[in-house]
Amino acid sequence: MALLEAKNATRILDETIKVTLVDNVSMTVGPGEFVAITGPSGSGKSSLLYLLGLLDLPTAGDVLVKGEATHDMTSDERARIRLQELGFIFQFHFLLPEFTARENVMLPMRRLAKLPARAQHERAGDLLASLGLEGHIDKRPDQLSGGQRQRVAVARALANDPALILADEPTGSLDSKATEQVFGILQNLVDISGRTILAVTHDMDLAARMDRRIHLVDGALESDGAAAGA
Amino acid sequence: MGGWLLLLDLAITHVVARGRQTLVAIAGVSLGVGFSIAMAALLHGSQEDFVDQLINAIPNVQISDERREAQRQPAQDVFADAQIENLSPRDDPRGIRNPVAMTSAIRAVVDGNVSEALTTQGVIRYAGRDTGVSLSGVVPEHELSVSKIGGDMTEGLLTDLNNRADAVVLGDNLVRSINAKLGDPITVVSPSGDVHRYRLVGIFNSGNNTADSSTGYLHLSTAQVFAGRPNAVNDIRIALNDPDSAPVVASWLEAQFGYKSVSWQEANQAILESFIVRDVIMYTVVAAILLVAGFGIYNIISTITHEKTRDIAIMKSLGFYERDMRRLFVMEGLAMGIGGSALGAVLGALLTVALGQIEFVNPESDDPITIRMTFSVIHYSIAIGIALGSAVFAAYMPASKASSLNPVDIIRGAT
Q1: Are residues B108 and B255 in the same domain?
Q2: Is B2 on the interface with A (CB under 8 A)?
């Protein structure tokens, strides 16, 4: 069964003028895939990712998570799926500035409240350590470098052990060294942990290193197949 | 529970991060609560002082020889089905019938003291001037047990009325107006025109100018002779151990004896009703003060939600519910409301104590005037309740707006 599926998903922005952000896209993502969403600027890559991540609602069509249609769900039900099943990494780290790295990683765990407080504390430390941040666990975001912050964001996305990670230009604001670090972490998550990652990127070299590439033009799916380097 | 603790943690982090603004908002609420409590203590203190004066100035229950409705005539009872017109009722003599038995019965039943009196009118004739006077014939010991006249005596004692049959006690203004002094003879003309000569044995000052200019006391038996009404009593005064029970006692006595019985509350109904209006005005002002304080909270919560739009977006994308965001910012407002209320309660208590210790010079006497303040849990509850309500209301509006933010709009616009 597909982890994630878009069925004729369409998103039209109807404000002063009608703009079609995503145009009748159908696709599936299976377990253990490392999928790149590529396309020129304004092609609807991020918009598609937000639809697939249940952050936005399609104007037409539907998004299915583990086979379950989401269009008619309440906002609370969609939030529950985001909390339990999905992990998000954005181009900007979006860490809460007043909290330490560990506290930021603990946020989704505390909201889900599935683990006891001590276990949450330990898991956050373990996740950060596994991403090479042992010495930075109790630092606030303003005490970390760009690459370190993004690794904290990765740890936060993994906090509730989601099956699927959605990343929107995860290396877009990083230098080449930090980009390699973060991409290596994502690659390991797929290869070693068997997670599924769907990542928007404009970096064609990185896209080529992923398993599969979905290419959008003007919001419509132009191609969906194995990446060039796969 | 974990969710609530997380939101509380976030709320505390936000308000602590904006320390100065938070303190200003808390100061606004605490000043509002503190002054509201002090104002309520002041107003209710003066109100209680006034009520005490009312209770002391007149009997708790006063039975007069009047009836609220015309008495049924015997013919009406005998010929119940007949229409009776132009009936001339018997001309009863004024006064309470069988007063000795009635006062004994009241004493046996009522929890308090009873004094019987005959109140009549007279004219004091002095140096060619006639001055009207209302004379109460009383048994001094009984009267002392129901009124504060004993404490009002400036010269002589009320019990001096027992010492001689021609003794009279007058108000000090009246004594001054006829230029008399203790021991002087006083000539009083009765309603029937008889001239009586009394001896001034006591002078009182009740603090009520009208009473001090126009009233006096005789012994009950002396008054009965003066009025030409032997054994008559037209006024029974009762002081209750529980003055608040006066309406119940009065209506029971009226039902039992038929005579008009007026409680101090009924006699001062208009004044007591004005207290309700005063309360409404006071609590309206209190609510207005605290709503204004709520604007401070509205201001800071609006600022925080504006500054934290990105955090709101990210938390929603992580799986926080809309209601989590609403609760978060309402909790922040509530935290400020609680902090302000706690400080305000302390401030209110201090102001109440401080105001109660201020002494004013009394031009009429050497005794300084102090402001009576009332401590009441109700004052604190109302002020704190309104403060917390306005804090929640002030926080809810920006919180509600923040909770409905679409995370995609914010994430797209983020830099």
Answers
A1: yes
A2: yes
